[in-house]
């Protein structure tokens, strides 16, 4: 497990405090027009592209991320499903989501 770092370095999402680090990196993700789930999916995909989320890294549960971001769980479910369909995330619904690849 990697340590959580502040300035653009990889985030240890599945460690204690990792959700806070992730939500900190997602600041501004909801700005602008469009569906929230698509904006969240795009923001998470950007973190994968920049290497802040590494292959195999586990993301927070849908419920935990929704609470941390102050949005509905349905929004996170839709974002995770979109990323699974694009091959960015792996994992079955209910068993957690892990980064599958760098785009």
Q: Numbering strands along the chain, what is their spatial order in the largest sheet?
A: 1-2
The rough form would be described as globular
Quaternary organisation:
single chain
The percent range for strand residues is under 5%
Give the helix level as a range of percent: 40-55%
Largest sheet: 2 strands, antiparallel
Helix-strand pattern: HHHHEE
Low-confidence stretches: 1-12
Q: What is the terminal-to-terminal distance?
A: 22 Å
Count of beta strands = 2
Q: Rg from C-alpha positions? A: 12 Å
Description:
The two termini are 22 Å apart. This protein has a two-stranded antiparallel ribbon. The protein has 4 helices and 2 strands, in the order ααααββ. It is mainly alpha-helical and 103 residues long. Residues 1-12 have low confidence and may be disordered. Helix 2 (36-49) packs across helix 4 (73-85) and helix 3 crosses helix 4 (73-85).
């Amino acid at each position: 497990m990697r340590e959580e770092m502040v300035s653009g370095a990889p985030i240890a999402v599945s460690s204690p405090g990792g959700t806070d680090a992730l939500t900190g990196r997602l600041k501004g993700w909801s700005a602008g027009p469009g569906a929230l789930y698509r904006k969240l999916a795009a923001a998470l995909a950007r973190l994968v592209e920049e290497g802040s989320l590494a292959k195999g890294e586990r993301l927070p549960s849908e419920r935990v991320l929704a609470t941390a971001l102050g949005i509905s769980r349905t929004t996170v479910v839709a974002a995770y499903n979109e990323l699974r369909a694009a091959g960015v995330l792996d994992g079955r619904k209910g068993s957690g989501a892990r980064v599958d690849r760098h785009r």
